[in-house]
Structures are given as structure tokens and as C-alpha cells.
Amino acid sequence: MTPRKPEIFSREYAEELLGIALTDLSDAKALHDLKTGRRQENVLYLAVQAMEKALKAVMVAELMPVPFTHSLAFLAGRLSNAHSVPFAEELAIFEPFSTTLRYQNGSRPATWEEAREAVEVASQLLAWAKLIVYP
């Protein structure tokens, strides 16, 4: 399978993508607030999805080519020339929750604290993205 080349989307798509990111974050918060019946990995997955979409929304708003990757560190690195991305150095620690741990438990379950931190980082990253997407 040939990897897809980065694509430039219309500026209007940035608002749609950020709206989806905000919904992902809202869902992560709601799931996190449940006391039973949920895996912390699912909270983390939704928070990471929100982070990824926020970074891509900023790229779209800036008319930058958007790479087809789930790597938060890579996306933040692509934006670093034009913007100071909040938590850019820490984003990579959340990457396993976007893929691997979505489908398996891993060597240990995710903790409530990790889920809380991911929701907090996602909240701040989305607040930053809103300033760029909705100038």
C-alpha cells in the first residue's frame, strides 16, 4: 500500500475538523467522569483523537499540507516553524493510546491520572487551536 501524500484542504474544513475535535474531547470528559464501566484507555483514545484533530485543524487553517499520520509529535513538529505548540515535547507520550492500547491492554492498564492528564492537555491544546482556527 502506497502512503498517501500530504494534502491541502480548504480553509473551511479547519472549523469542521476542530468541531469534531471538541466533540471528541467532550466525550472523553464524559467518559472520564463515569465512576465504573469504562476503560481508561478509551478516555485516553478520545483525548488523543481530539489532540490530533486540533493539530490538523491548525494545519488546515494555515493552508499547510496535512500528512496522513496519527503521530502527535510529528504533527507538532510540522507546526513548530509557524507556531509554539503547547505541550509539543510531551505529546509523544500519549501516542500509544491512539493505536496500540486501543486494541489491547498492554503491560499494565492505564491509570485514572493518565486519563485526567490527557483530558487536561487536550483541553489546553484545543483552546490554543481555537485561537488560530477562529481568529
Descriptive terms for the model:
about 60% helix; about 140 residues; mainly alpha; globular; 5 helices
Give the topology, please.
Elements: H1 12-33, H2 40-61, H3 72-79, H4 100-103, H5 112-133
Helix pairs in contact: 1-2, 1-5, 2-3, 2-5
How does this structure look, described?
This protein is mostly helical and 135 residues long. The chain has a single domain, classed as Nucleotidyltransferases  domain 2 (Four Helix Bundle (Hemerythrin (Met), subunit A), Up-down Bundle). Helix content is 58%, strand content 0%. The protein contains five helices and no strands. It has helices at 12-33, 40-61, 72-79, 100-103, 112-133. The chain is globular. It starts with 11 loop residues before the first helix and ends with a helix. The mean pLDDT is 90.
Structural class: mainly alpha
For the record, the CATH architecture stands as Up-down Bundle
Domains, number? 1
Query: In CATH, what is the class?
Result: Mainly Alpha
Straight-line N-to-C gap: 38 Å
Q: Which fold name corresponds to the CATH topology?
A: Four Helix Bundle (Hemerythrin (Met), subunit A)
Report the C-alpha radius of gyration, rounded: 15 Å
Shape: globular
Strand content: under 5%
Write the CATH homologous superfamily.
Answer: Nucleotidyltransferases  domain 2
Question: What is the overall number of helices?
Answer: 5
The count of DSSP E runs of length 2 or more, i.e. the number of strands, is 0
Instruction: Kindly report the average pLDDT value.
Output: 90
Q: What oligomeric state do the depicted chains represent?
A: single chain
The biggest sheet, with number of strands, parallel, antiparallel or mixed sense and barrel status, is: none
Uncertain spans? none
N to C succession of SSEs? HHHHH
* Helical residues, percent: 55-70%
